[in-house]
UniProtKB/TrEMBL annotation:
<dbReference type="GO" id="GO:0005524">
    <property type="term" value="F:ATP binding"/>
</dbReference>
<keyword id="KW-0472">Membrane</keyword>
<keyword id="KW-0067">ATP-binding</keyword>
<dbReference type="GO" id="GO:0015658">
    <property type="term" value="F:branched-chain amino acid transmembrane transporter activity"/>
</dbReference>
<dbReference type="InterPro" id="IPR027417">
    <property type="entry name" value="P-loop_NTPase"/>
</dbReference>
<dbReference type="InterPro" id="IPR003593">
    <property type="entry name" value="AAA+_ATPase"/>
</dbReference>
<dbReference type="InterPro" id="IPR003439">
    <property type="entry name" value="ABC_transporter-like_ATP-bd"/>
</dbReference>
<protein>
    <submittedName>
        <fullName>ABC transporter ATP-binding protein</fullName>
    </submittedName>
</protein>
<keyword id="KW-0813">Transport</keyword>
<keyword id="KW-0547">Nucleotide-binding</keyword>
<keyword id="KW-0029">Amino-acid transport</keyword>
<keyword id="KW-1003">Cell membrane</keyword>
<dbReference type="Pfam" id="PF00005">
    <property type="entry name" value="ABC_tran"/>
</dbReference>
<dbReference type="GO" id="GO:0016887">
    <property type="term" value="F:ATP hydrolysis activity"/>
</dbReference>
<feature type="domain" description="ABC transporter">
    <location>
        <begin position="6"/>
        <end position="246"/>
    </location>
</feature>
<dbReference type="GO" id="GO:0015807">
    <property type="term" value="P:L-amino acid transport"/>
</dbReference>
<dbReference type="InterPro" id="IPR052156">
    <property type="entry name" value="BCAA_Transport_ATP-bd_LivF"/>
</dbReference>
Length: 247
């Protein structure tokens, strides 16, 4: 087997020097796969993604144990920007678009760490519009006045402008109607198969995530309590009972 693209080994995360939130989490994302990180509200999904992207510092969080490797190289000490240059980018929960900028301006902000030429910018933008035709139609609209689904698409599109090999996607389904959620997951699947983008996807919507993911990890109270192929997890009785609301 080849080494995983991303590998997290036994990480511990503490907020404010005292609040132990991740209690030894290990997981892997193989090259070219979609991996779902599942679990209830507060289980530690966002914290795991932020530990990888190094966005924890801003929230007074710290990785106090363990190792994070991307392409076999330790990345725990990199800044978020240096990680983007290595090809890893996070799309934050809650989307965080610049409300007063147009959709296209929002997309263009995603490329700034990469120092692209005009023609590269243009071709990345065309690539984003190929996957998100809806953003192309709405490109001149002020982001703050677009729908929740369009803002989520803009957030993913902005990340794509940096040409990542891996996207850390936090709760893409949050607050969106089921039909839009499907639309977004279809695009994620497409990006995965056609642009070879690997995904680590945090989701509370277990059912949908397992339909699109290859592999899943279930977090509970800062620990991985179950892991397996997405299709196996989706049919596992315990998973169904506890996380799908089916008994
Ligand atoms: P959600 O779906 O709500 O984002 P989650 O599984 O992503 O849930 P986290 O956001 O990672 O969970 O939160 C895990 C735990 O860490 C929670 O108990 C939360 O209250 C706590 N926590 C998160 N951020 C901080 C912070 N900045 N300071 C202190 N505690 C925090």
């Amino acid at each position: 087997a080849t080494a995983p693209l991303l590998s997290i080994n036994n990480i511990e995360v503490i907020y404010d020097h005292v609040i132990l939130v991740l209690k030894g989490v290990s997981l892997q994302v193989p090259q070219g796969k979609i991996v779902a990180l599942l679990g209830a509200n507060g289980a530690g999904k966002s914290t795991t993604l932020k530990a990888i992207s190094n966005l924890l510092r801003a929230e007074r969080g710290d990785v106090t144990k363990g190792a994070i490797e991307f392409r076999g190289e330790r990345v725990d000490r990199l800044t978020p920007n240096d990680l983007v240059k290595k090809g890893v980018i996070q799309v934050m929960e809650g989307r965080h678009c610049f409300a007063h900028l147009s959709i296209e301006e929002n997309l263009l902000t995603g490329a700034y760490t990469r120092h692209l030429s005009r023609s590269e910018l243009k071709s990345n933008l065309d690539m984003v519009y190929t996957y998100f035709p809806r953003l192309k139609e709405r490109r001149a609209s002020q982001a703050g006045y677009t729908s929740g689904g369009e803002q989520q698409m803009t957030a993913i599109g902005r990340a794509l402008m940096a040409k990542p090999s891996m996207i850390l996607l936090d709760e893409p389904s949050m607050g969106l109607a089921p039909q839009i959620v499907e639309e977004i997951f279809e695009i994620v699947k497409d990006l995965n198969s056609k642009e070879n983008v690997s995904f680590l996807l945090a989701e509370q919507n277990t059912m949908v995530a397992l339909r699109y993911a290859d592999f899943g990890y279930i977090l509970e109270n800062g620990r991985v309590v179950m892991e397996g192929d997405a299709s196996d997890l989706a049919t596992n009785e315990d998973v169904k009972e506890f996380y799908l609301g089916v008994s």
